[in-house]
Design goal:
Elements (H helix, E strand, L loop, with lengths): L2 H17 L3 E2 L4 H9 L7 H12 L4 E3 L2 E10 L2 E9 L5 E8 L3 H12 L3 E3 L8 E3 L4 E5 L2 E9 L7
Parallel strand pairs: 1-3
Antiparallel strand pairs: 2-3, 3-4, 4-5, 5-9, 6-7, 7-8, 8-9
């Protein structure tokens, strides 16, 4: 093979690997994941795992009772970096996202974009913020985490 062709193939392979870190979100990301984060939809971790795998490829890690996906997405004008969905080891079913803004900024964005209001649950320096439907915004280092979590339904007779 000529050297120029080998260099071109190496460049293409490098670009493909670089793009594997985070994949742009599909057009359905806001309605599907945004609604779940706001607790406006039923939570089914198998459904959301399949959706995120199809949209972003396999989870890059499994930790803390969740599958973690790298994402390049925007919700309510805020940049989403990661999305998590619960695995079956937890008593909770949840969908969560790490957002590149402070909890105060995210709260304003959600209120402006979706009309959902949050209230602090305590007077601490970094209080959790809860909405009436049950969505939570938490401080996560220099970013925010927004999530919806519900207890798993128990089988009949329990």
């Amino acid at each position: 093979m000529p050297r120029s062709l080998l260099r071109a193939l190496a460049l293409l392979a490098g670009l493909a690997c670089a793009g594997a870190n985070a994949v742009a979100a599909p057009s359905t990301f806001g309605p599907v994941i945004g609604s779940a984060l706001l607790c406006r939809s039923q939570l089914d971790n198998a459904y959301f795992h399949a959706y995120l795998t199809q949209a972003f490829g396999p989870a890059y890690k499994r930790e803390g009772g969740a599958y973690w996906f790298k994402a390049e997405a925007t919700l309510w004008g805020a940049q989403v970096n990661e999305v998590m969905v619960s695995d079956d080891t937890s008593n909770l079913v949840f969908v969560a996202a790490v957002v590149d803004s402070t909890p105060e900024e995210l709260e304003k964005s959600v209120r402006a974009g979706a009309g959902i209001a949050y209230r602090p649950v305590d007077a601490s320096r970094h209080p959790l913020r809860k909405s009436n439907p049950g969505s939570t915004i938490a401080y996560a280092n220099d970013k925010s985490k927004i999530y919806c979590a519900k207890f798993k339904p128990q089988p009949p007779g329990r």
